[in-house]
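batch job 7 of whatever, protein = EAL domain-containing protein
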Amino acid sequence: MPNIEQLIVQNDFYHVFQTIYGFPGKSILGYEALIRSKSNMNPDLLFQHAMEQNKLFEVDSFSILEAISAYFNSPGSREHGPLFINIFPSTLVSPLFIDLLDTLVKQFEPYRNQIVFEINESIYEGLLWKSASFKDAIRLLRELNFLIALDDVGDGTTSFRNILDISPDFIKIDRFFSADLSTSKKKQKVVALFVEYCNDESNLILEGIEKEEDFETALSLGIKMGQGYLFGKPNRLT
């Protein structure tokens, strides 16, 4: 098993960025940061090892700082739009989270309202959503003008209750619903339900769009934002 702390010290990690588009004109709305390993470790495996070694906060906070720094220090960052960066619930409830926010506020003051924290789902951390510390962290993010997204909605612990409690700025529908959307009436009904709900509540993003026919169906259902390999794979910023 790789030593996660050693990999951090060796600077084994970097980020690629996937474009989030606005429809129907495919205008660039922002980017999502995705962590990668120079040693080609699968990101899911990376976080699994980090959890097993009690280093999840270290990896998550390192990833957040590095991604934000790479993004907003790149040429033309003001024209890039918001940056979506994943965060685990356990990071939000950590006593060290306030220190992380303090660092972000000091280093990236002009960009606070362009940083979107995507709350990651984890079957191991589902109970944390109901904790007082989690709710306090959400409240603090709002007070500091950061934005909030719920990630992979429909494929984990996120429930309609969580959506109502948090009132996220963005809801990202899991890629499961975009796959073969054009031929699945059931998936179309679910996507249409989210479109109707989000009209006055949140910005809705459909993830994992890979086929033109699924994209066309998404448009017909009212999807106005999305990302996926149909529009391009994640890459380093140029």
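notes: The two ends are 33 Å apart (CA to CA).
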